[in-house]
Write a structure and sequence with these properties.
In chain A, 43% of the residues lie in helices and 19% in strands. With 400 residues, chain A is α/β, with parallel strands linked by helices. In chain A, helix 10 crosses helix 11. Chain B has a single domain, classed as Aldolase class I (TIM Barrel), CATH 3.20.20.70. Classes of the chains: A alpha/beta (400), B alpha/beta (268).
Chain lengths: 400, 268
C-alpha cells in the first residue's frame, strides 16, 4: 500500500466497518462531539494546550529504548521498546484522556464517565477529571473490579466513583453497555471518554488521533537512533488503541510490517479467548461494525484473557479494515505464552510489563529470531505491570 | 396497505388510540409467549412489539435486560422469535407484530436473509434500536420491498431535520422515546411530551407511538390524548419478574394492567 491513506470517510466508515450504530438519543451528542472534535483538531490554541499537557503532565516524549540484551538473547532482529509504561498513570491511556478532557472542558461538560477493563483507562480518566475538577464516574465489570482491585483503589483516591457492573459477563463489554446507558440518561452535562478505538464515530478516529503521538514519536526516534525506519511494529490488541496509535503514522510506509497481537486466552481452539480478528466474524456492537466474537445467532460470546484489558469481544473498526486489506497482520498469543513474555522482559531488561503488553513481548519472542540481525522491531510497551502483581502472584501460587 | 397502516387508519376513524405492549420473546419461557400474545389481543391491544433477546441490550434498563437474560437462558434467538411470531400468526391474521431488538442478530442472518425470514413469518414492522437512518438504507429497502415497515425512534433531543429524516425513511409509525434514558426509567413529563409532539407532528404525517416510562392506566390515558399510540414494556415485564414461579399469575396481572389501560384510554 503506497497510496495515501485517508480512512475513515466523512461518516466514520473504514470500508464496511465503523459507522454510527447507536440509539437515537445518542445521535445529537455524538454529532455535537464530532463537530467539536473537527473544530479543535486543527485549532492551534487547542493543539498547543494539548502538547503542553503531554509534555509536562504526561511526561512525553516517552523514550524509545533499545533492548540490547534481549535482542542478543533472541538472536535476530534488534528490539526497541516504546516506553508508554513510563507515562503518568503507567500506560498509553493517558494520551487519549488528556485530549478528550480538554475537549470536554471546551464543550462545557461538567461530568465525565468512562468504562474500564484493567482499570488503566479508568485511572487515566479519573486522573484528568481530578485535575480539571470534574465529576467522574467509572464503570467496571464486577469480575474486573475483583481482579484489578489496586486500580479500583487508585480511582477512588482520585475522587472517582467506581460502579461495579453486575450484568452479562461482568467484564469490559458490560462496563461499556452501562456507560452507554448512563450517557443516554445524562447527555446534557456528560462527556463520555471512551478508552479505545471502538464506539460510534467519531470515537475510533478521535482516539486514534490522540494516540498517534506514540507512532509519530517512535518514527522520529527510530530515525534519530537507528538511522532508518523499523521493519516491524508489534502491539497488543484488545480494542486496539495502543496498536493503532503506534501503527497509524506508519501505514503509508509500505516497508514497515504491522503485527497486532490478540489474546488467545486458553488457546483459539478452546473457544476461551478474546481474538475476534483471528476467530470472529463481522457484526455490530457498541456503535460500530467490526469483527466480533458472536455465535450463529449474533449473540455476543463471553471472552477470556488473563489480561483484563484485552478481555473484549470486539476490536476497533480500523483494525478490521487493516486486516481485510492485508496492511496489518493479526496474530494471537495464549495466556501461558504471555506469561513467558512477561518474565522474559522482566528478567532480561529489568522492566515489568503489563499483562496486556506481555502479549506483544511474547509474539516478539517468536518473530525476532526469524528476522535478520540488521532488522528492527519496535514493540509498544503500552503499560507497566504493577497493577498485575496480584494476578501474577495468584497464578503462581504465591501469597502476597 | 400494510397491516400497521391499516390498523392506524382504522383507529383514527373510530377516534381511538393504539395500545402497544412490548414483551420479550421467550421470557420467562418460550412456551409462555404465544398464549400471552393471544390473551393480550383479547384484552384489546392493537399492535404487539415482540422483543428479540440480545446479549448486550445497551438501550434497555435493568427490567428488560433481565428479561433478555431469562430468554437467552432458554436459547431464545432471532430465529426462534420469528418462529413464535409465525405460530401466533396461524390463529391471528389481523394483529400487527413489530420485532424490536438490536442489529447484530440481524447482521448474523444477513439483511436479505432476515428480510426473507421476517416476510415468511408475516412480520409487519421492524424496529432496530441501534440502527439510525444514516446506516439503515440497505436494510430498509429490503424490508419495504416485502411490505414490512421499518420503524424508527425519535428522542426528546431530536431536531426537525431528524424528524423529517425518519418521516422519509420510516413507515408504519414512529416510536417517540419520551425521556432521555433507558427503558423503564423514571417518570415521563407530560408537558414536555405534549410540547415535543407538536414539533414532531409538524414534521411528519406518520402516527406516533409514545413509550418509555408508561407505568399505569392514568399515564396511558394522558399519553393517549397526546399521541396516536401508547407503548408499555417494562411495567408488563415487571409482572413476569414478580411471578417467576407462577407464569399463569404473571399473565393474569399483565392482562389486568392492559385492560385497565385500555379502559382508561377509551374513556377520554
Amino acid at each position: 500500500m503506497t497510496e495515501k491513506y485517508t480512512m475513515p470517510d466523512a461518516h466514520g466508515h473504514f470500508g464496511p466497518y465503523g459507522g454510527m450504530f447507536v440509539a437515537e438519543t445518542l445521535i445529537p451528542p455524538i454529532q455535537e462531539l464530532n463537530a467539536a472534535y473537527q473544530r479543535y483538531l486543527n485549532d492551534p490554541e487547542f493543539i498547543a494546550e494539548l502538547d503542553a499537557d503531554l509534555q509536562h503532565y504526561v511526561g512525553r516524549p516517552s523514550p524509545l529504548y533499545y533492548a540490547e540484551r534481549w535482542s542478543r538473547e533472541l538472536g535476530g532482529a534488534q528490539i526497541y521498546l516504546k516506553r508508554e509504561d513510563l507515562n503518568h498513570t503507567g500506560s498509553h491511556k493517558i494520551n487519549n484522556t488528556v485530549g478528550q478532557a480538554l475537549l470536554a472542558k471546551r464543550m462545557g461538560k461538567t461530568r465525565i464517565i468512562a468504562e474500564t477493563g484493567a482499570g488503566q483507562h479508568g485511572v487515566a480518566t479519573a486522573t484528568v477529571a481530578a485535575r480539571l475538577g470534574l465529576e467522574c464516574v467509572v464503570y467496571m465489570g464486577a469480575v474486573d473490579v475483583a481482579r484489578q482491585s489496586l486500580n479500583v483503589y487508585r480511582m477512588k483516591l482520585l475522587g472517582a466513583k467506581v460502579v461495579a457492573v453486575e450484568s452479562g459477563s461482568k467484564t469490559l463489554k458490560d462496563a461499556l453497555n452501562e456507560a452507554l446507558r448512563d450517557w443516554v440518561t445524562n447527555v446534557d452535562n456528560t462527556f463520555y471518554i471512551i478508552g479505545t478505538v471502538a464506539g460510534p464515530h467519531p470515537y475510533p478516529a478521535m482516539v486514534r488521533d490522540f494516540q498517534a503521538i506514540i507512532g509519530r514519536e517512535a518514527k522520529s526516534q527510530c530515525l534519530a537512533q537507528a538511522g532508518r525506519l523499523p521493519d516491524a511494529l508489534v502491539a497488543c490488541v484488545g480494542g486496539g488503541s495502543n496498536a493503532i496509535g503506534l501503527f497509524y503514522p506508519f501505514i503509508e510506509d509500505a516497508g514497515v510490517k504491522l503485527y497486532g497481537v490478540e489474546a488467545a486466552g486458553d488457546g483459539i481452539a478452546t473457544g476461551r479467548h478474546s481474538a475476534p480478528l483471528n476467530a470472529g466474524r463481522p457484526g455490530v456492537l457498541h456503535g460500530n461494525r467490526t469483527y466480533l466474537m458472536a455465535d450463529d445467532d449474533g449473540e455476543i460470546i463471553e471472552t477470556h484473557s488473563i489480561s483484563a484489558g484485552l478481555d473484549y469481544p470486539g476490536v476497533g473498526p480500523e483494525h478490521a479494515w487493516l486486516k481485510d486489506t492485508g496492511r496489518a497482520e493479526y496474530v494471537s498469543i495464549t495466556d501461558n505464552e504471555a506469561l513467558e513474555g512477561f518474565h522474559a522482559l522482566t528478567r532480561m531488561e529489568g522492566i515489568i510489563p503489563a499483562l496486556e503488553s506481555s502479549h506483544a513481548m511474547a509474539y516478539t519472542m517468536k518473530l525476532a529470531p526469524r528476522m535478520k540481525k540488521h532488522e528492527i522491531i519496535i514493540i509498544n510497551l503500552s503499560g507497566r505491570g504493577d497493577k498485575d502483581m496480584q494476578t501474577m502472584a495468584k497464578r503462581e501460587g504465591i501469597e502476597l | 396497505m400494510s397491516r400497521l397502516a391499516a390498523k392506524f387508519e382504522e383507529l383514527a376513524k373510530t377516534g381511538r388510540k393504539a395500545l402497544i405492549p412490548f414483551i420479550t420473546a421467550g421470557d420467562p419461557h418460550p412456551d409462555f409467549t404465544v398464549p400471552l400474545m393471544h390473551a393480550m389481543v383479547e384484552a384489546g391491544v392493537d399492535v404487539i412489539e415482540l422483543g428479540v433477546p440480545f446479549s448486550d441490550p445497551m438501550a434497555d434498563g435493568p427490567v428488560i435486560q433481565r428479561a433478555s437474560e431469562r430468554a437467552l437462558e432458554h436459547k431464545m434467538s432471532l430465529r426462534k422469535t420469528l418462529a413464535i411470531a409465525a405460530e401466533f400468526r396461524k390463529t391471528d391474521q389481523k394483529t400487527p407484530i413489530v420485532l424490536m431488538g438490536y442489529l447484530n442478530p440481524i447482521e448474523a442472518m444477513t439483511y436479505e436473509g432476515f428480510a426473507n425470514a421476517a416476510s415468511r413469518a408475516d412480520i409487519d414492522g421492524v424496529l432496530t434500536v441501534d440502527l439510525p437512518p444514516e446506516e439503515a438504507e440497505a436494510s430498509t429497502a429490503l424490508l419495504q420491498a416485502r411490505e414490512i415497515d421499518p420503524i424508527f425512534l425519535l428522542a426528546p433531543n431530536s431536531s426537525d431535520e431528524r424528524i423529517q429524516k425518519m418521516d422519509a425513511i420510516g413507515s408504519g409509525y414512529i416510536y417517540y422515546v419520551s425521556l432521555k434514558g433507558v427503558t423503564g426509567a423514571g417518570h415521563l413529563d407530560v408537558a414536555d411530551v405534549a410540547q415535543k409532539l407538536q414539533q414532531i407532528k409538524a414534521n411528519t404525517r406518520l402516527p406516533i407511538g409514545i413509550g418509555f416510562g408508561v407505568k399505569d392506566a392514568q399515564t396511558a390515558k394522558t399519553i393517549a390524548a397526546i399521541g396516536d399510540g401508547v407503548v408499555v414494556g417494562s411495567a408488563l415485564i415487571s409482572k413476569i419478574e414478580a411471578n417467576l414461579d407462577d407464569p399463569k399469575r404473571a399473565q393474569q396481572e399483565i392482562i389486568a394492567l392492559l385492560t385497565s389501560m385500555r379502559l382508561a384510554m377509551d374513556s377520554q
